Every structure is written in structure tokens, then in C-alpha cells.
Amino acid sequence: MSRSVTHVTVVTVIWVAVVGRGAPFPAARVAGAVAGVRDMTRQRLPNRRGHELLTFQHEGIRYTAGVGRFADGGLAEIFLATAKHGSALDVIARDAAVAASLLLQHGCSVATLRQALTRNSDGSGSGPLACALDRIAEWR
Question: For 71, what's the count of Cα atoms within 13 Å in the CB-facing half-sphere?
Fold first, then answer.
């Protein structure tokens, strides 16, 4: 895949994460969106790296979150899994975590990602990814 196609794809994902699905995304704004992102090049992680585990319950479902960090300690990747491997909820949680990891590795801040995710009226995360990111933020 060419570098420009990768950039447009990442910008589109970031646009959806920050602005929301269904919001207009005119092609003319791609350059401006790219300029507002820290660095569109994916920050690769070493093949062998530390990994932390966190277990939590959300809406009665038990989750395990795996966390990898950049050398500076910043969140670089998150993996989510439920106790019922292969269930629809497990697949959705895993896919959301992979997308979040790619956003983090392309320069999206944890704060931006947390703000973009759905919240309950009390400010807590509505979904498992938001809940996990909140717990990881409290954990550190």
C-alpha cells in the first residue's frame, strides 16, 4: 500500500474517532487533517516488549486487557478479550482494540481517543474499550 493511501486511511479512522461516524469528510480537508496529527508514520514497536494485563468487568462481562507501551511509557497498544472467546462481543472488543492500537501508533493521543468514545451520563465509558482506557489511565 502506498504511503498516501495509508495516510488517507488513518486520517479517515481518526476523523471517525474524533468527529463521529456520519460526519461529512470532504476530500479537501484531508491535507488539513493530516497537518493536525502529530506524525502520520506508524511508530513500530520492538518484536519483544513488555506486556501488562488488566482484568475488569463491564456490563456483567469479564474482560482481559493487554497493554503495551512505548519506550517513554506512553500507551502504544491495547488488546481486549472476553471470557467467551469467539463470541460476537469478543470479536467486536478485539477489533476495537486493534483499531485503537493503530491510532495510538499513528500519533493519536490517549486523551483524544478517550474523549472520542461513547460516554454514559456520569462520564464513565459506555463500551469496553472506553472502560479499559479509563482504567488504564487510573492505573498509571
Answer: 5
Range of the domain at 26: 1-41
134 and 74 in a common domain: yes
Whether 57 and 120 map to the same domain: the answer is yes
Say if residue 96 is in the same domain as residue 125. Answer: yes
pLDDT along the chain (140 residues), means of 10: 44 49 49 50 84 95 95 94 95 97 94 95 96 90
CA distances from 8 to 29, 59, 140 (A): 11, 35, 33
Cα–Cα–Cα angle for 111, 19, 3, rounded to 5 degrees: 85
**Contact yes or no for 77/104 (Cβ under 8 A):** yes
